[in-house]
Design a protein that fits this description.
five-stranded mixed beta sheet, alpha/beta, 5 strands, Nucleotidyltransferase, domain 5
């Protein structure tokens, strides 16, 4: 069975402000792919959901059947585990897109982890913003 462990993070400087996403995809404890992308001006929550969507799309390309998503966003984790309702207008569309992608897998587990445990994805998200700001300066 093709299983992946994926760490995701979104960052926003200003909330809303320049935003980036970071995704670390691991298989059998080894990092197989990093994604660091600038996504424009967004809120932190939009960046978190965008990171999730990138992660799910990449997991589909890698033909994963079971994925474990690790995030330091308690809101995102609890919304996807259906403990919280999605009330924000700018999140509903992203939540629906993520839910549709999620249905393509046999099993998806969302786990809330500490920021300390999510340093790799956090660094990638922050780097995306820094590179963009340096490039546009």
């Amino acid at each position: 069975m093709n299983e992946l462990e994926i760490y995701i993070d979104g960052a926003s400087k200003g909330n809303p402000g320049p935003s980036g996403i970071g995704v670390v995809i691991c298989k059998h404890g080894q990092t197989i792919k990093n994604i660091s992308t600038y996504i424009g001006n967004a809120t932190n929550n939009v960046a978190e959901y965008t990171a999730l969507i990138f992660a799910l799309q990449e997991a589909l390309k890698l033909k994963a059947q079971t994925i474990s998503i690790k995030t330091d966003s308690q809101l995102l984790c609890n919304q996807l585990n259906r403990l919280y309702k999605v009330k924000s207008e700018n999140i509903i569309g992203l939540f629906n897109q993520a839910s549709q992608l999620r249905s393509a897998f046999k099993k998806v587990v969302f786990t809330n982890i500490s920021r300390q445990e999510n340093r790799g994805a956090d660094k990638l998200a922050t780097e995306a913003i820094k590179k963009h700001l340096k490039w546009t300066a």
